[in-house]
Amino acid sequence: MEEQYGVMFCGHGSRDEGAVEEFQAAARGLKERLPQYETDWGFLEFATPVIRTGLDALRDKGVRKVLVVPGMLFAAGHVKNDIPSVLNAYQAQNPELSVLYARELGIDLKIIRAAGDRIEEALQKAGDRFSREETLLVVVGRGASDPDANSNVSKVTRMLWEGLGFGWAETVFSGVTFPLVEPGLEHVVRLNYKRIVVFPYFLFTGILVQRIYHYTDIVAAKHPEIEFVKAPYLNDHPLVLDTFADRVEEIRIGVNNMNCQLCKYREQFLGFENEVGLRQESHHHHVEGIGTGAEGVTPQKHDHNHVHSHDHDHDHNHHPYPHADHPLGPKTMEQEEPETPESPVKENK
Questions:
Q1: Tens digit of each residue's pLDDT (9 = 90 or more) over 267-310
Q2: Cα→Cα distances 22→173, 203, 205, 314, Å
Q3: Fewer CB within a 10 Å sphere, N or C end of the chain?
Q4: Residues 66, 37: Cα–Cα separation, whole Å
Q5: Which CATH number do you get for residue 197?
Q6: Nearest alpha carbon to residue 319 among 281, 275, 279
Q7: Please, how many CA atoms are within 13 Å of residue 64, restricted to the half-sphere of its CB?
Q8: How many helices (H) and strands (E) does the chain have?
């Protein structure tokens, strides 16, 4: 019966209070779409409540079947390892519960439409001085050490490019992989388009979105002959919330297919062959629930013999990323970031 079910919405967590507030607003929007279920939420790291707190709340309300939704766009380390590790541990400690895990948002036409709406918002505010054919779109993904997740961003780029009729489009990333935002933008300015739209393909704000806009300002200041437009990220677009609700119902009716054919932990993925069969475990325990804001963050030492400042320039599976030294990738961020110039960019949030 439906009253046995509860919904748990799992977020990554952030040092940015705005990101936490936006996630919680999305959680409330999901709850409004699923009034037949008890609903709660929690975070992997930094922010509170943590995931197990939300699970405890559902259990204490009499829920015995928990439908867990990862609040993330693609399935990289957080979706494939970190959240399942937390859920498996909780399930083992609470055998009276059934904890069922949804797939990520993934490539979904509703999400593509939501992304298109955000880009259209930015273009409408920028005006019609330039045509679509004179405009280049740059889609910025989070970046992961998982090529499956990274490739999905490129697919999103192509769907938006073709669907909206831009002259050209490119994919860049905010961290971990390559090309990063600044070298990627320095590349596309050479293509001689009159307008460049930079679209962060992110659910919520945070340090990475701020960094994307920061590097956009830097490159724009060097190229005043080009109009740069900063598009808003997805946030709680109604179609995003509808897709989260779809993921919940997929579990309930038994249709919940995560793509494991291109998973580097299970298949011999080109360049990542030595990661097949790695143990499923979370690496967020050392920052779980420590709080938002800079004052709540300190480097954490643990048994992997390195230090984390957790600015998310890396993924959390701690296996060496084979392209960490790529000249357009993370090594370019080791230099001290320059001061952001006074922004010449049209920003539409």
A1: 554 555 566 655 555 555 545 656 665 444 333 333 333 333 34
A2: 22, 9, 8, 23
A3: N
A4: 10
A5: 3.40.50.1400
A6: 275
A7: 6
A8: 9, 11
